[in-house]
């Protein structure tokens, strides 16, 4: 039995289908999660409705609608955010319906980013107070309305299960019955939130509200949008970034059945057709000549060389404690290393796509985006329209990982739609998706440490070079040569490290755009710092866990997860030849995480990750099952990166194209994952990305334990590990 | 020319070139969007459907190759015994995250279970390694298949 019915509502009016779904949902006893899209679709706010804030709407008919400021891309936010509101509003999750938030930076900005976006593992962190307060505010006003109607003191009433109850008399009114009255009540200034011991929902496993539609094909992603009359387009963009379209011979493409139109842009060609099969066939039939532009000779080696050179010059000081140079000079031993990390594509399972209908004076967009207001603004610019003339419908996201924080796909769709009569869905082939991604930056780190006679670090010096995504994406947050993302995981380390010096050199590589990628700054910095701490332990001839532990006397939360991971992973127990365990510890996204990877290195140098043990302290847990799921997910994402992840350029072109050349971890290679969570009442930390940044160094350290070979460059090159 | 093919028990007429992949006939011509596009080269399994009960990649299955075979998609797999058990187990184990690949995962898992009541880990690897999940739900996919295999056959 499927208990929860989800009624995904497409953004265009398909009334008969919607009525069917609503009726069938009412007939079933379960939850209706109707992912209504915002403009003109959600019911207009009625005079009798209670809308105490931008997140809650209670209709006179009793319907409770929550507007989601963060978008669902798998991380469970459409279950955990409603939990925060419902906890204080005193409703059950099954009583609510969800809507995607429309673009509105004022109402729905992420408090930690300052813009309306879902990323950096901070939805729960940002929402933790405001959305509980939103729920509490509404509850207080509902209680006030009931007390007024009954002529009793508010203190004699309580809220429960979507009703207000007068405790002494047992009288009760449902929220719907109180909606109009509550709207007239004063908005309370200060609300007192529940203490952790009063939580009914927070900390209890909740079934995902988006699950049912994801097992029966009814969940609607951006790529599933089908406004009436929609044509399907696919495109070829200049294979070299910055190149231009020189000429197109489209005679053969025009002859393909179902091809309707060929659209030429400055740096791309699109085929518009009745269906994607015809569009792809038409695309393959095009004879295109490109003017490849200034980057036609570019290779990854050129970029790596430039970054290496950049680490030889002074950068911006990101953190300095004590005098690292002096301490280094006086150290007993000096350890030095260079690390490199490759460009990476996102490879979301849902390829890039956007549906656009340009109607001269306005433009309508159907897309799944992590940053809806950004998309609206950039579409407006591309369409030459004021922002309010861009109608945009958000959708479930078939994998974000940072890719859908960017608006390039929507801008492309608008450029094409401007030449097409009627709506057009632009779907990128997987090859276009991988070869025209915006990539996790390439990084080069030059790092050194000085150890005293006991092997303890007395000096730490790290200078790294690479792209600042923040400088492009959120310019005000890039200040004086630094931004908080690029340095996260490189500074403010969990360890007691005296005489600590870190510099960042910003270098924007030519000919390849960069972007956020799951676990962002820490995906780079935690690899370097946790690999290097491991090198120091080895140089000191000490156990990797014991070495770290000795630097954590001041940081009990970090020490606790380190100890827990080591214990659960049987750290120190003997392993067969060819196997090794490696550990990594991080504080990132507001959470503490220790991971132990157990790997096997075969004679041919191939690496298999058998088991991963994770111990975390992410503060208060909202949905325990989501925390488990996100750590599992983050680990798999990181294992893929460690084993396979690499995007390379040759003659200005991305060499990888599809899942044969840009490999993903598959089920037959997936490690067993144990997740252990430390109980905590601290404010919640982020969990969506933590598992990714820590697992890569844990694997590299495990390979070292198994083989004695230190991996300073990702992904793992099996050639270097051959027996 | 038009091709008449049986999809989820209904005969549908589709007027496209014979070399058109079934995937696009489903998604763009018939509007059955539960079957997903992932790679176009049978590398990821997102587009998996059943052809006479066997899991096939609809992105490389041309419409002219279908003939009289019966196509089942994610929209109707719940009407099969194995499909219903797999869907139920998927919900019990909370497998889906972004969910985009899960139509294909469920179609592959349903075909596996229909032909093999008690799949081993190796059987699961064989049947499921053609389906990529970028959210990395593999641990739960394996658990859910095992749970479905344990559940009574008649329960839906």
TrEMBL record, chain A:
Protein origin, superkingdom: Bacteria
Domain Aldehyde oxidase/xanthine dehydrogenase a/b hammerhead: 216-294
Pfam families: MoCoBD_1, MoCoBD_2
Regions that span the bilayer: 20-40
GO molecular function terms listed in the Swiss-Prot or TrEMBL record: oxidoreductase activity
Keyword terms, alphabetized: Membrane, Transmembrane, Transmembrane helix
Membrane is among the record's keywords: yes
UniProt xrefs under InterPro entries: Ald_Oxase/Xan_DH_a/b, AldOxase/xan_DH_MoCoBD1, AldOxase/xan_DH_MoCoBD2, AldOxase/xan_DH_Mopterin-bd_sf, N-heterocyclic_Hydroxylase, OxRdtase_Mopterin-bd_su_IorB, TAT_signal, TAT_signal_bac_arc
Protein name stated in the entry: Xanthine dehydrogenase family protein molybdopterin-binding subunit
TrEMBL record, chain B:
2Fe-2S ferredoxin-type domain: residues covered: 1-77
InterPro entries according to UniProt: 2Fe-2S-bd, 2Fe-2S-bd_dom_sf, 2Fe-2S_ferredoxin-like_sf, 2Fe-2S_ferredoxin-type, 2Fe2S_fd_BS, Beta-grasp_dom_sf, Diverse_Oxidoreductases
This protein's UniProt keywords: 2Fe-2S, Iron, Iron-sulfur, Metal-binding, Oxidoreductase
Coiled-coil ranges per UniProt: none
A Pfam entry, by short name: Fer2
Superkingdom field: Bacteria
Single GO MF descriptor: 2 iron, 2 sulfur cluster binding
Annotated protein name in UniProt: (2Fe-2S)-binding protein
Species in which this protein is naturally found: Bradyrhizobium niftali
């Amino acid at each position: 039995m499927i208990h929860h019915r989800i009624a995904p509502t497409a953004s265009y009016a398909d009334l008969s289908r919607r009525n069917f779904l609503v009726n069938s949902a009412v007939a079933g006893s379960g939850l209706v999660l109707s992912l209504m899209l915002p403009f003109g679709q959600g019911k207009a706010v009625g005079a009798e409705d209670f809308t105490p804030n931008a997140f809650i709407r209670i209709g006179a008919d009793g319907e409770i609608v929550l507007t989601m400021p963060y978008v669902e891309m798998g991380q469970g936010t459409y279950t955990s955010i409603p939990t925060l509101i419902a906890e204080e509003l005193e409703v059950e999750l099954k009583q609510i319906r969800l809507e995607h938030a429309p673009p509105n930076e004022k109402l729905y900005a992420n408090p930690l980013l300052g813009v309306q976006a879902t990323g950096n593992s901070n939805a729960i962190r940002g929402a933790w107070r405001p959305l509980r307060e939103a729920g509490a505010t509404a509850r207080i006003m509902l209680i006030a309305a009931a007390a007024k109607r009954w002529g009793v003191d508010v203190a004699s009433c309580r809220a429960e299960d979507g009703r207000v109850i007068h405790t002494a008399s047992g009288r009760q009114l449902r929220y719907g019955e109180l909606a109009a009255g509550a709207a007239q009540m004063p908005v309370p200034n200060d609300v007192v939130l529940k203490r952790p011991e009063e939580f009914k929902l927070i900390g209890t496993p909740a079934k995902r509200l988006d699950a049912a539609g994801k097992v029966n094909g009814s969940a609607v992603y951006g790529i599933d949008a089908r406004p009436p009359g929609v044509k399907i387009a696919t495109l070829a963009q200049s294979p070299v970034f910055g190149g231009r379209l020189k000429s197109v011979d489209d005679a053969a493409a025009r002859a393909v059945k179902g091809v309707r139109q060929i659209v030429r842009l400055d740096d791309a060609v699109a085929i518009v057709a009745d269906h994607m099969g015809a569009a792809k066939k038409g695309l393959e039939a095009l004879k295109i000549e490109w003017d490849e532009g200034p980057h036609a000779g570019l290779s990854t080696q050129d970029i790596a060389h430039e970054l290496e050179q950049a680490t030889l010059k002074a950068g911006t000081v990101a953190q300095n404690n004590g005098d690292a140079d002096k301490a280094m000079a006086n150290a007993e031993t000096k350890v030095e290393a260079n690390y490199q990390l490759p460009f990476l594509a996102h490879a979301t399972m849902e390829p890039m796509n956007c549906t656009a209908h340009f109607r001269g004076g306005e433009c309508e967009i159907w897309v799944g985006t992590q940053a809806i207001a950004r998309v609206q603004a950039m579409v407006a610019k591309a369409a030459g329209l004021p922002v309010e003339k861009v109608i945009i419908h958000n959708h479930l996201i078939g994998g974000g990982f940072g890719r859908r924080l960017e608006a390039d796909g929507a801008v492309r769709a608008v450029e094409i739609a401007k030449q097409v009569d009627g709506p057009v869905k632009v779907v990128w082939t997987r090859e276009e998706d991988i070869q025209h991604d915006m990539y996790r930056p390439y990084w080069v780190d030059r790092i050194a440490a000085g150890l005293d006679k006991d092997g303890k670090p007395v000096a730490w010096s790290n200078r790294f070079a690479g792209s600042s995504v923040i400088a492009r994406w959120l310019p005000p947050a890039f200040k004086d040569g630094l931004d908080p993302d690029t340095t996260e995981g490189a500074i403010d380390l969990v360890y007691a490290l005296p005489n600590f010096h870190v510099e960042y050199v910003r270098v924007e590589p030519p000919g390849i755009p960069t972007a956020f990628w799951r676990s962002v700054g820490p995906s780079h910095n935690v690899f370097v710092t946790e690999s290097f701490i491991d090198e120091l332990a080895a140089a000191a001839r000490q156990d990797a866990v014991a070495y770290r532990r000795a630097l954590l006397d001041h940081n009990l939360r970090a020490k606790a997860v380190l100890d827990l991971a080591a214990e659960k992973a049987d750290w120190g127990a003997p392993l067969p030849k060819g196997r090794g365990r490696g550990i990594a510890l991080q504080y990132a996204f507001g959470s503490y995480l220790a991971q132990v990877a157990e790997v096997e290195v075969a004679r041919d140098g191939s690496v298999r990750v058998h088991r991963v043990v994770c111990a975390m302290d992410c503060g208060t847990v909202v949905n325990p099952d989501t925390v488990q799921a996100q750590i599992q997910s983050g680990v798999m994402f990181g294992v893929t990166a460690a084993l396979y992840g690499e995007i390379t350029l040759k003659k200005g072109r991305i060499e990888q194209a599809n899942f044969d050349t840009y490999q993903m971890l598959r089920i037959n290679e997936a490690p067993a994952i144990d997740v252990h969570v430390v109980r905590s009442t601290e404010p919640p930390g982020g969990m969506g990305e933590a598992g990714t940044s820590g697992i890569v160094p844990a694997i590299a350290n495990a390979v070292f334990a198994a083989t004695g070979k230190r991996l300073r460059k990702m992904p793992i090159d099996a050639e270097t590990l051959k027996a | 020319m038009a091709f008449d093919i049986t999809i989820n028990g209904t005969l549908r007429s589709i007027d496209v070139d014979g070399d058109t992949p079934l995937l696009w006939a489903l998604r763009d011509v018939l509007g059955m969007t539960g079957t997903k596009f992932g790679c176009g080269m049978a590398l990821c399994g997102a587009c998996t459907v059943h052809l006479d009960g066997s899991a096939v990649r609809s992105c490389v299955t041309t419409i002219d190759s279908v003939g009289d075979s019966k196509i089942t998609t994610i929209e109707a797999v719940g009407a099969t015994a194995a499909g219903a058990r797999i869907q139920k187990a998927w919900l019990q184990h909370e497998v889906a995250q972004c969910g985009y690949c899960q139509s294909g995962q469920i179609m592959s898992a349903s075909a596996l279970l229909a032909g093999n009541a008690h799949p081993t880990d190796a059987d699961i690897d064989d049947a499921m390694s053609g389906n990529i999940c970028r959210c990395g739900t593999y641990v739960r996919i394996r658990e859910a298949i095992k749970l479905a295999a344990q559940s009574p056959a008649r329960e839906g």
